[in-house]
Every structure is written in C-alpha cells, then in structure tokens.
Amino acid sequence: MKADSKLAKKIETGDFIVTAECAPGATAAGATAEAALKFLDGKLVAVNLADNSHGVAISSVAAAVAAMKLGAEPVLQMVTRDRNRIALQSDLLGAASLGIKNVLCLSGYHQTLIGCPESANVFDVDSTQFIELTTGMSENGVLADGTKIDGQFSMLVGAVANPFLKPLELNLFRLGKKIEAGARFIQTHAVFDMEAFSQWLNAARKEGLTKKAAILAGVFPLDSAAEAQKLRDTYAEFCIPDKVIERLKKAGDNGAQKKQGLAICVETIKQLKGLDGLRGIHILSGGKEALVPEILAASGL
Fold it and tell me: What is the DSSP letter of 280?
C-alpha cells in the first residue's frame, strides 16, 4: 500500500525537507517527552523518535504517539539490536494501528556503546533486511512468512547512511542495497567534513541514487571540544576534523564553545543547502531539542 504520510508527500513533490530528532531519556512521564517535543513543533516536516540510542529510554512508539498528540508527524526509529523478526513485525503492526506512518530502520549501536554492556544483543536481521521486511509488509500486505495482514498497513520506510565510510565503492554499494530494499528516504550521520560529504553525495548522484531516495544530510550542534573529541573517539560515524575541534577550543570557556558549536552547525547547513542532489536537512539533536528553533531561525530553514 502506498505510504500517505506528510513526509511521503513532500518527497513526491520535490520540496526541501527539514526533520529533527527527539531523544527523551529514561522517563515514565509523558509530560517530559511532550516538553522536548514542543521545541520541534510547527517548523518541521517530521520528527524522529529515537529508539534507545544512548541507553534505556522511553519507548520510541510511546514517544511517537506523544508527538502525534501535539500535532507533529513522527518518524518511528526501530533498531534490530533489541528485537528479532517476530518483535520487529509485532511492533510495526502496533505502530501502524496507532496511526504511525513513517519508520527509520536501523541496526543500532552495540550495547557496549550505550552503557548497557551486560545486555544481550539480537541482530536477528540487519538493517537492510529490516528495510526489505517492512517494505514487504507495506507493499504486499503480508508478514515475512506470507501471513496476510488484517487492516491497512502503510509505512514510509527510511534508512541511515554513513557518508564517511571507506572505501567509497563499498559505501555506495551499501547505500544502493538499502534503496533497492525499499528505503524512500536516507538520513545521514552528522556532517562536519564538507569536502568528504560532497564527494560522497556527488558519487551517489552520478550513480542515480539521489533520484531513487530523498537524501537528508544530518547536522549536530556540538557543545564543546571535549564532547567533539569524545564522540569522535567513541563512534566511528562521527567524522569530526581536527580543525573543528581546534576551533571549539579557541572559542574559550564552555559557554563560548557551545555558541561556537551552534555557529558551526548553522554554517554547515548553509553550505549543505546548495548541494546538487540533496533533498533536505536532518537535525540530530542528541537530546538538545531546545536548540532546534535557534538552529532553524539562524540557518534560514
């Protein structure tokens, strides 16, 4: 069944798309999630709800429902780290029954990177297989074993890409497989190295991939040089050049570094907006939802 979300319509019309991430933490209070979501209301096509990306947090399905109550369109994030294919399909059916129409299919960080080293991982399927499974449910109306789904299941499927993965040929192969599996939009990891990102996007455009899926470039507001260094050391996806860290250090104290981090984020957005083949921006808040309105205003989004 054809996806009929607002995000799907924006992809079809060719509009420039702006999305952002909401990452409420370990809370059982709906008001806490709603408070974070209020910073993202009104200016965005859709809002991502993180799925235990940095430790145990409120269910992304529950957070997505909170987003809908506030009038925002959610992008439900789901990781294969914590679910086998039975749980993935069950949660997707539940999400669809609640009116959720967009899903971002991820594998998820290894549990040792999110402060839960004692937890067992699952990884029954990888992210590409998860995309294919969800696409089959949406387009054919059946589960992985062929069981017919009762009711309407319509889900716009998205994926994540790391523009800085080397070699470039392997990177484009992985991206192409995700798009072939059914990903209609791609949200990238945070961009700090414009030269490397431009090279990746140009290569994807020449391969015709930018016409097959809407690519949204991720941006992230850094708080300090220390945070930048920690992210770079911990996560392979954070490709932060030395010159960015040095610029933050030279800014001075923590308050000045935070302002500089925001300025770098805004500058990056302004540079990204002019790139051929790019369909939008995805603001990775990392729990800094309060900064999103300022980023939107300063960057002209």
Answer: E
138: closest CA among 179, 77, 89, 205? 89
Decide if pLDDT at 164 tops 90.
yes
Query: Hey, what amino acid is at 107?
Result: S
Q: What is the pLDDT of residue 1?
A: 65
| The pLDDT of residue 125 is above 90 | yes
Specify the DSSP element, H or E, that contains 129: helix 127-140
The β-bridge relationship of strands 17-22 and 46-49 is parallel
Question: Around Cβ 152, how many Cβ atoms within 10 Å?
Answer: 11
**Residue 205: DSSP 8-state:** H
For CA atoms 92, 160, 285, 18, give the dihedral sign: negative
CA separation for the pair 93, 88 (Å, rounded): 9
Phi, psi (degrees; rounded to nearest 5) at 19:
-125, 165
Cα(102)–Cα(95) distance, rounded to whole angstroms? 9
Tell me the per-residue pLDDT of 35-78, one tens digit each, with 9 for 90 and over. Answer: 778 887 677 999 999 998 888 888 999 999 999 998 899 999 99
What domains appear along the chain, each with residue ranges and CATH number?
6-299 (3.20.20.220)
Task: Read off the pLDDT of residues 195-208 as tens digits, 9 standing for 90 and up.
Answer: 999 999 999 999 99
Q: Which two tokens stand for residue 24?
A: 């409420």
C-alpha to C-alpha distance for 174 and 211, rounded to whole angstroms: 16
pLDDT band at 25 (very low <50, low <70, confident <90, very high): confident
Strand bridging mode 156-161 / 102-106: parallel
Compute φ and ψ for 145, nearest 5 degrees: -90, 5
Contact 137, 155 (CB under 8 A): yes
Buried b (16+ CB within 10 A) or exposed e, 275-291: beebbbbbbbbbbbbeb
Going by C-beta distance under 8 Å and a sequence separation of 6 or more, which residues neighbour residue 179? 159, 186, 209, 212, 213
